[in-house]
C-alpha cells in the first residue's frame, strides 16, 4: 500500500516552498522520496527549508525567483532542469494578503496581490507545464487555494478574488492538460497559522472562525502533507484532475 505514495525518482518544484505551508508540503513530498526544488523570493529562507529536508535524509536544493517576474521563472526552470532533469510535480504555494478595506484599496495593491496569487501561478503553469509536455512523462500540478475562494471572507477582498480566479484556472488547465497526462488540482486549506493570516486574526475574528469551523481549531501545517502527497502520486490519484480538495476542518460545510 505504501507504494501508492512512493515519489522516488520524481522531481517536485515547490514555488513558495519557503513559506510556512509551502515548506510543510515540500517536506512531505521529500519524505516520500521526491527530489524537491525549493523556490522562493527569499533565498535564505529557501535554503533553510532545503537544509532541513537534507538533514532528514531527503534531497533538496534552494532556488531564488520572484513568481511575478516571468524572466525569473524561466531562469529558475532552466536551473532546475540542469539540476534534476525536469519537473514531475509542480506545487504552487505563493501567497500575499492584505486587510485593506474595499473603498481604500488602491490599484497598486490590487496588482501586487494579483501578480503573486493569480498571474504568478498562471505563469508558472505555462512555463513548467510546457516542459512537462516536452518531457512526455505526464505530471501533477497542485495549486494552493483558500476557503475564501468559495466563501468570500470579510477584510480580504483582493485575496478572495485572486483565489476564486485560481480555482477557475485550475479547472480550465485540468481540461487543457489532460491529453498530455498532466493532472491539475487545487487544495483549499482552511485556517492555518500562516504569517499572512495571523496579521488579521483579532480575538473577534478568531471567535468567528471557530464558530464556523466544526472541528473548533486551526489546522497544523503538517496536516496539508497528506493531500499534497496524494495529489502528487500518479499511482494514488491517477484519475483525479480538476478537483478542489478541502482541508479545512469542515469550514466549507457550514451554513448557519
UniProtKB/TrEMBL annotation:
Its keywords, alphabetically, are:
Oxidoreductase
Entry keyword annotation includes Oxidoreductase: yes
> Listed GO molecular functions?
oxidoreductase activity, acting on the CH-OH group of donors, NAD or NADP as acceptor
Q: Which residues cross the membrane?
A: none
One of its GO biological process terms is: bile acid metabolic process
Record carries keyword Oxidoreductase: yes
Going by the entry's taxonomy, the superkingdom of the source organism is recorded as Bacteria
Instruction: Give the Gene3D superfamilies listed for this entry.
Output: NAD(P)-binding Rossmann-like Domain (3.40.50.720)
Write the signal peptide boundaries. none
Kindly give the PANTHER family that the UniProt entry links to this protein: 3-OXOACYL-[ACYL-CARRIER-PROTEIN] REDUCTASE FABG, SHORT-CHAIN DEHYDROGENASES/REDUCTASES FAMILY MEMBER
Give the UniProt family note.
Answer: Belongs to the short-chain dehydrogenases/reductases (SDR) family.
Name the chain's protein: SDR family oxidoreductase
